[in-house]
Amino acid sequence: MTAPVGVGFIGAGMISDTYLENLSSFPDVKVIIVGDINVERAKSQADKYGVPEHGTGDDVLAHPDVQVIVNLTLPATHAEISSQAIAAGKHVWSEKPIGLDRVGTQALLEQADAAGLRVGIAPDTVLGPGVQTAKRAIDRGIIGTPLFASTQMQYQGPDLFHPNPSFLFAKGAGPLLDMGPYYITALVNLFGPVAKVGALGLRGLEERTVKVGPDAGSVFPVEVPSTIQMLTAFESGQQAQSLFSNDSPLFRQGVFEVHGTEGTLVIPDPNMFEGRVAYVKPIAAMNGDSNSMEQEWIDVPQEGIVTGRGLGLLDMVRAIAEGREHRANGRLGYHVLDVMLSAEESAAAGGEFVSVESTVGAIPTMPDDFDPLASTL
Predict the structure, then answer these.
(1) Of 151, 210, 286, 351, which alpha carbon lies 20 to 30 A from 188's?
(2) From which domain of life does this come (predicted)?
(3) Domains, the chain, ordered by start
């Protein structure tokens, strides 16, 4: 790896804005080309962010100066496009999920290993100062021994704002595979790999209506559960309960609590890079006075520089240069996918617990002095 590392985009949809904005500001990388099936859209994004070239996905794959490909295609094509990137001799960073099935995803990772190339996988929000500050606090014993976690993500669904929401209710998406990676990846960062899961699911509506954009009023089918409730058992003995819903009239997102023997820690929304980290200590005793039940929230100062999406790709290219494993790696992405597919299988079986066959090693904490804006390569 030499600086700046050449980066090419395949996919120029909504999510590309935040990636292009951040990666264009990191000195260790240089965005060279934006590609999309809609070449005019690729040109528009390239012009907007000062990227010198645009074209199709094939143009990105063939570009001699591109060392890393950012795969921002639809979930159904993530594994296919990532495989094409590896075949072209490029490292790849993919939006979540890494794939839609175990066999194809395992084949992708084996292909990358054989080629000596890296696969990075979103989300990298968990590498931001919010979750990482919380991780360091737990490691310091601020809440004693962690016992269990509670997470919630519930609202009416992305059809509230997305002009083309049908793919978010199709196979490979739904609230579990769309939003679950943020919460499950954060849980695995904190507790380690998952041993088994149990889940219940439902579809609040069989069809949904596009609410915004040029296709407003059109109807599309809901192919997957739009609400999933999940119980998770970790190899370490800890547990978690999680709700993912696109059927809730009540908007409640980013609820993430870790309860331990000596306190409860509130962690920021794992879909964000920053947020409040705070904890409470247990009540010593109740003497009948209502004031004895009051608990003081103690803030934990946030550590680290806030950036945004692209942080995981930056960690990957620096890891290649340093000869270490990157944090948001393909094995972690596969394990999170395996957990989610196991939860879908449990829900289809009426809640029966399903063992998660894959595992993953401990994810190193980000150094608090990791500076995305530094030139290190």
Answers:
(1) 351
(2) Bacteria
(3) 5-121 (3.40.50.720), 126-299 (3.30.360.10)
